[in-house]
Give the backbone structure.
Amino acid sequence: EQQAMAHRLYTLVFPMDEQNGRVLLGMKKRGFGRDKLNGFGGKVEVNETIAEGAARELAEESGLEAKSMKQCGLLMFYFENDPVAMEVHVFLVHKYEGTAVESDEMRPQWFGIHDMPFKQMWADDSLWWPYVLKEQKFVGQFWFKADQVTVTREKLSAVDSL
Ligand code: 6OG
């Protein structure tokens, strides 16, 4: 029988400007995923819920305060030679307060939702972003080589609830 793999909880948050059809991404300046554009997020801490962690990371990294947040996806990432999987809870923020500001970790920039800079993003993003555009919830599993670029296996599907 197969045993559940050890995993660690993360959040990934995309602030949406629906009026202008834009999404806020951040250029990661340090740490894991450095020099990639991504949503905002990080590890969930022990004394917070996943949603609280998502809002906290968004505020820390972008300066935006979430006023309404919805989970849109659940992603599992497995890296070659890493026994701990990443369980990433993906959220969309449609209402927020504040203005995006650069932080130590992220340089925020708005992009058209139909004009995403996938070449500068993680390889999985171009695969599941179409679900976001269709307002369809999704779950995905992606197996990466240690190079953090090559996806060797993927599973992705639409779900009714998360
Ligand atoms: P910190 O190390 O900054 O948290 N993340 C990924 N995001 C995408 N789109 N694809 C991946 O493919 C990712 N792996 C990790 C989750 C890491 C942040 O990076 C996201 C967190 O928001 C492998 O604390």
Q: What stands out?
A: The longest strand covers residues 65-79. The pocket of 6-O-methyl guanosine-5'-monophosphate is lined by residues 10-12, 31-33, 38, 41-43, 77, 86, 88, 122, 124-125, 144 (CB under 6 Å). The CA atoms of residues 18 and 93 lie 10 Å apart. Strands lie at 7-17, 22-28, 37-38, 65-79, 85-97, 106-112, 138-144, 151-158.
